[in-house]
Amino acid sequence: MFYAHESGEQMLLSKNGLITTIAIGLDHKVQYALEGSVFMAGAAIQWLRDGLQIITSSQETDSIAANLEDNGGVVMVPAFVGLGAPHWDMYARGAIFGLTRGTTKEHIIRATLEALAYQTKDILDAFQLDSKIELKSLKVDGGACLNNFLMQFQADILQVEVERPVNIETTALGAAYLAGFYTGYYDREQVGKTKSIERSFLPNMAILYKDRLYLQWQRALRRCLNWSNEDDLN
């Protein structure tokens, strides 16, 4: 899962764990962006299906999570292959915290979805620190954005509106538009009129509760850092 924030013609070097990359080239000008990468997003849901075998499809996680009152105190860190931005820790490993006798597979499923939103917040917080721009809304795309529970939880954790477009393959559509610009098939005014929002998710979680959940995530994350570094065992 990738996130990008355009920084314009000025190349901005991150001080908060992001990557500087080329976003686009139009009119013989290069536009730069800051980029953040999450190593385990959709693959974490695949692990629930193929590894733990507690779901049969990713689609069912939506209703399972939504039907729970809360996560039962469970926090899941999907650092199966280390952590990407903004942590960049190849020695980090995944873990599930907060297990009790009352924990069910449904709690683990919900905690996994919540972890995707927490990782997004980690990166977007870094974007805001680097760019000095406050996040007003989040535009999403890709298969994960079809999960209504995840999108609502994302809006709650970020405390901003999350917009899901009618066409969720925005990345591929953008590449097609760029090709159209160069061939003269599209003009920018025409493309600007094609934007269509299928659904918006507005935050409705109490801020104090949101802060408590995110602090739990940060505490769990710290315990996973540097886990497999054998030098620390000597």
Protein described:
Helix 4 links the parallel strand 6 and strand 7. The protein has one domain: Nucleotidyltransferase, domain 5. It has 7 helices and 8 strands. It is globular, with a radius of gyration of 19 Å. The protein is 39% helix and 18% strand. The two termini are 35 Å apart. 27% of the residues are buried. The protein is of the alpha+beta class. Helix 1 packs antiparallel against helix 3, helix 2 crosses helix 3 and helix 3 packs across helix 4. The strands form 3 sheets. It has a 3-stranded antiparallel β-sheet with strand order 1-3-2. The chain has a 3-stranded mixed β-sheet with strand order 6-7-8, covered by helices on one side. Strands 4-5 form a two-stranded antiparallel sheet.
CATH classification, class level: Alpha Beta
The overall pLDDT, averaged over residues, is 90
Q: What about the largest sheet? A: 3 strands, antiparallel
According to DSSP, the number of beta strands is 8
Element order: H for helix, E for strand? EEEHHEEHEHEHHEH
Report the radius of gyration as a whole number of Å.
19 Å
Name the strands of the widest sheet in spatial order.
1-3-2
C-alpha geometry: globular
Low-pLDDT segments, ≥5 res: none
Structural class: alpha+beta
The helix count comes to 7
In the CATH hierarchy, the architecture is 2-Layer Sandwich
Helical content class: 25-40%
Q: What is the domain tally?
A: 1
CATH topology: Nucleotidyltransferase, domain 5
* First-to-last CA distance: 35 Å
